[in-house]
Amino acid sequence: EAKNKGRNSYRFFTKNDNAEAHKRLTLQNALRYALEREELFLCYQPLLETNTKNIMGVEALIRWQHPSFGMISPAEFIPLAEESGLIIPIGEWVLETACRQSHHWQQQGFTPLLMSVNLSVRQFNQPDLIDRIIKVLQRTDLSPNWLKLEITESLAMNCATKTVQTLKILKSLGIHLAIDDFGTGYSSLSYLKQFNLDILKIDRSFVADISTENDITLVTSIIKMAHGLNMQVVAEGVETEQQFDLLRANGCDYVQGFYFYKPLVEKDITKLLAQQESGQLINVSSASFF
Ligand code: C2E
Ligand code: MG
Ligand code: MG
Ligand code: MG
């Protein structure tokens, strides 16, 4: 039934819808225990300032290492966690782990990093979201100024009035806010203006195609619009020098992608930070990644 295709991927045979449904059920059941069995962990992918190539922050990205299925991609299990409601405890665990880690790096003496955490729709819509976030910040002793929450366009479009209100409170606490995967959803530009976000992340599908004339126009327009709305821009999925050069030439503020670093485990980020502080950072890392 199942087949393990090596370290980074896990695929069931998907001959028909039955197999598809079975796969979902199996994963959903396994996910129930993933947290308590400590099968989940976080990787951190650096975000670099375009001009200096300094690491200014990291994005926390969840990983699930199942004992027999192997590594399962968040693209596969986050939607399942959303459906079942498991995203609530899992999301809270991510937030707390990431905040604690960020505070820990600060305690080790590194220049503070902006810690980005992805928030799912269901998490965002919890009535006590603000309270939970404040409590996590208190427990982990992290200043809200070092936390950035990434929300998606679909979330943003759900219930505009409530969303605007929640975002306002988060912002008043000093938390940074980003819209993730920009360009893939159904953002209304008027909402974008109301949301008053700090950062816009251009989806990697636009970055991937940036070599064609039309896509350069698209990306540069997004950057200009974001700046016009007082947002800074992160390009995600930067994989080549050419992409980086084009983004830099067009005023993109930050970059994130395999060209620089893949998502790394804690100890590799610690090494990177130590190298950066001592001015010995080599730009493309051979450290272990997931
Ligand atoms: P995302 O938030 O847009 O995260 C960026 C994704 O792009 C990550 O995939 C990252 O590994 C990948 N990426 C970064 N640079 C490159 C590149 O140069 N090339 C390519 N091909 N990919 C690149 P990942 O870690 O598999 O996560 C996928 C998605 O799963 C995330 O997209 C996010 O939506 C979701 N996710 C991950 N962790 C969490 C979490 O803790 N909570 C929630 N709610 N969602 C999460
Ligand atoms: Mg993200
Ligand atoms: Mg993204
Ligand atoms: Mg994405």
UniProtKB/TrEMBL annotation:
Domain EAL as annotated: residue spans: 24-277
Secretion signal span: none
Protein name, entry field: cyclic-guanylate-specific phosphodiesterase
Lineage: Bacteria, Pseudomonadati, Pseudomonadota, Gammaproteobacteria, Thiotrichales
